Amino acid sequence: MKKFAIVGIPDKFLDDLIKxxxxxxxQADISMFYTANQFFTEYKPGSVDAIIIDISVPDKNFTEFxxxxxxxxxxxxIIGIATRNDPVDAEIFKNKISNSEFIFKTEDxxxxxxxxxxxxxxxxxxxxxxxxxxxxKTILVIDDFENTLNIIEYTLKSNGYNVVGALSGKEAIxxxxxxxxxxxxxxxxxxxxMDGFQFIETIRKMPGYExxxxxxxxxDFSFKKKLRAKELKVNAWIQKPYKIEEFLNIIKQTLI
Length: 256
Hints:
Layout: E1 2-7, H1 12-23, E2 28-33, H2 36-42, E3 50-54, H3 62-72, E4 77-82, H4 90-96, E5 100-104, H5 110-120, E6 138-142, H6 146-158, E7 162-166, H7 169-177, E8 184-187, H8 196-204, E9 214-218, H9 223-231, E10 236-239, H10 244-254
Parallel strand pairs: 1-2, 1-3, 3-4, 4-5, 6-7, 6-8, 8-9, 9-10
């Protein structure tokens, strides 16, 4: 049985997460802390396998709290949890805190639960070794369906890529304007507000992104739309559902 410390104010997501952890075949022994102060007062270092920190911690900055928790206890895996709309960057969180992972809240915790137990059994996705002097390639992924976005992110991270997700074209453009410089952009086509074509048209006019490789990942098979993609210098049109090996192979060939 794995032991967990969970820190945060319970909401629908945390309540469901706790229930699923307790009901999982491998089961979990859970200690609940509602504030940072309670955690630092009552927590015994070395007593758990993982510390799950929700962004709802009321009395301390989320990431700063995780850093302090790591200083207090070097052993457990630290897992951050937030929604995609919360002001936190998962990659910055993981870069700041050793032995840490990050989960975005979704309506279904099943995948997250299995992921957590896999992490604790040292089955975390292994990053492919990069050649000396080479940094992992960064891929921006845009899809308005959160579960699909999570699956793509997990697949790419499992294969050694840095991944930044966005739930809309507008959010993706904001990330680009904030300094993100991806090696590849993968976008859904049919999205509300700003569709994939509008997003690509916009970035092709932005300095520095005229030649950035772009893939369209879609269920759409319209020949007319494929011609439009070619006009916008789209590098690959990938039909859903796709074979993961073929998907990864196209990415690898593009990023050589």
